[in-house]
Amino acid sequence: MKELEDRIREEGTVKAGDVLKVDTFLNHQCDVALFDRMGAEWAEHFRDRPINKILTIEASGIGIACSAARHFGDVPVVFAKKAQSINLEGEQYVTTIYSFTKQREFPVIVAKKFLSADDHVLIIDDFLANGKALGGLLDICDKAGATVEGIGIAVEKGYMGGGDRLRERGYDVDSLAIVESMDPDTGDIEFRA
Known about the structure:
- With 193 residues, the protein is α/β, with parallel strands linked by helices.
- It has a single domain, classed as Rossmann fold, CATH 3.40.50.
- It is 28% helix and 33% strand.
- It is built from five helices and ten strands.
- It has helices at 2-11, 32-45, 60-69, 132-144, 162-168; strands at residues 13-15, 19-21, 53-57, 77-80, 92-99, 104-111, 120-128, 147-157, 173-182, 189-191.
- Strands 4-3-7-8-9-10 form a six-stranded mixed beta sheet, sandwiched between helices.
- Strand 7, helix 4 (132-144) and strand 8 form a beta-alpha-beta unit.
- Helix 2 packs across helix 3.
- The longest helix is centred in the N-terminal third of the chain and has 14 residues, at 32-45.
- The N and C termini lie close together (11 Å).
- 36% of the residues are buried.
- The mean pLDDT is 93.
- Keywords: Cytoplasm, Glycosyltransferase, Purine salvage, Transferase.
- It comes from Bifidobacterium simiarum.
- Converts the preformed base xanthine, a product of nucleic acid breakdown, to xanthosine 5'-monophosphate (XMP), so it can be reused for RNA or DNA synthesis.
- One of its GO terms (molecular function) is xanthine phosphoribosyltransferase activity.
- Belongs to the purine/pyrimidine phosphoribosyltransferase family. Xpt subfamily.
């Protein structure tokens, strides 16, 4: 998606340790009009899939998942929580993921009443690096018996291989911007053609 690539080039900041900061429009301050156009792109890509639920992980995936849901007939968005709370009740699917940006492991939880074998899921997230966070969401879908119809990613760090490994496993991964390389010294960002 050229618009997203242009925004990353114009407003993104490359930091040491393979960090791409896009907080001016994607994961701190949200450009909702951009999110809507991203949702339209995913709806076009996955138009032939019987998606009845969108799954994401808190917190940065929620905004883009909600915007995308509007393009799929207002399907519900379920977000995996990163911590137990008194609001989580009943039986739950739980797995552990490692966050690249937070550099730590944490549990992710989805109440069983929100995900079942009847669901055809589109997973949406803001970033895909090595694929470990997505692995956790796929594990939850597997535990629920849900069918994963596809994965929509805003920004994939293609050089880290997570997306390619998921594609090799047969998942339809639609990343709107795939970063091939980035240089923290120059700020240069190259995208996959």
